[in-house]
Write a structure and sequence with these properties.
Farnesyl Diphosphate Synthase; two-stranded antiparallel ribbon; mainly alpha; 14 helices
């Protein structure tokens, strides 16, 4: 089954369980709204790609890991958009969850999606893979280095760019590569570097898009980093410097793939995917 079909079918099944008989109707609607239609599903695609490269010995565990990571990503977007953080009215080209359903429901939706991610692992993953997958995913969510910590850095007076980006963005990419390997029965630790490099590349690209693109192009507000005095690679390195850093990270990601049966295919897929991170406006920027 193609990766996208695997991911979407698993997400539909898991989210439908949370919207079953007895669920508060508005919360149930908001949870579905937050997950569907999705964005590019970059993180779950990465998890599936790594699992395939490692043999994909337990597809059900792979699907559960991919779905859990995407649910956590969606939860982080719901919370990130809240008035107490970015106060963003748009997400993925439509009203953000709090704009559509109200702030209390948005808080609860994010909370419910976090819990649902771990429920998906418990219900769907094979017993042999469950413990390592829970440990990997949990580390990507909480403190000291997960996405919650990344959000918390925005509340600090001084924000180190590297620590902030590794937690806010990189943590779920690390979870994707490590969980994909663990789901396939491989040692997840050698896959950490690949997740770190792709995660940093994605964040640098996102920083560039925040400066170079329009809200219509991104489907969300722009200029948030400057408006809220947050670290931004484009602001700190300049557009040309950030472009050079992005190119370095794409190459580093490609060369960091550990030995595995599907290494060549995975390298080609990652090269193609990471090249799509480059905003088209960068073609006009001198190196």
């Amino acid at each position: 089954m193609p990766s996208l079909d695997r991911i979407e079918q698993t997400l539909e099944r898991v989210v439908d369980c949370a919207r079953g008989s007895g669920a508060p109707p508005i919360l149930a609607s908001a949870m579905h709204y937050a997950v569907f239609p999705g964005g590019h599903r970059i993180r779950p695609h990465l998890a599936v790609a790594v699992a395939k490269a490692c043999g994909d010995a337990s597809p059900r565990s792979t699907n559960a890991a991919a779905a859990a990571i995407e649910l956590l990503h969606c939860a982080s977007l719901v919370h990130d958009d809240l008035p107490c953080f970015d106060d963003a009215a748009l997400r993925r080209g439509k009203p953000s969850v709090h704009a559509e359903f109200g702030e209390p429901i948005a808080v609860l939706t994010g909370d419910a999606l976090i819990v649902l991610a771990f429920e998906a692992l418990a219900r769907e993953a094979a017993p042999a893979q469950l413990a390592p997958l829970v440990a990997i995913v949990a580390a990507a969510v909480g403190a000291p280095n997960g996405i919650v910590a990344g959000q918390a850095w925005e509340c600090e007076a001084a924000v180190p760019l590297t620590d902030y980006q590794q937690a806010k963005t990189g943590a779920l990419f690390v979870a994707a590569t490590m969980a994909g390997a663990a789901a396939a029965g491989a040692d997840p630790e050698p896959w950490r570097t690949l997740g770190e490099k792709i995660g940093e590349a994605y964040q640098v690209a996102d920083d560039l898009r925040d400066v170079l693109c329009t809200a219509d192009e991104l489907g969300k507000p722009i200029g948030q980093d400057a408006a809220r005095y947050r670290p931004n690679a484009a602001a700190q390195l300049g557009i040309a410097g950030a472009k050079a850093r992005l190119e370095q990270l794409v190459e580093a990601a490609s060369t960091s793939i550990p030995p595995c049966p599907g290494r060549a295919e995975l390298r080609a897929a990652i090269d193609a995917q990471t090249r799509q991170l480059f905003p088209k406006q960068l073609s006009l920027v001198a190196a």
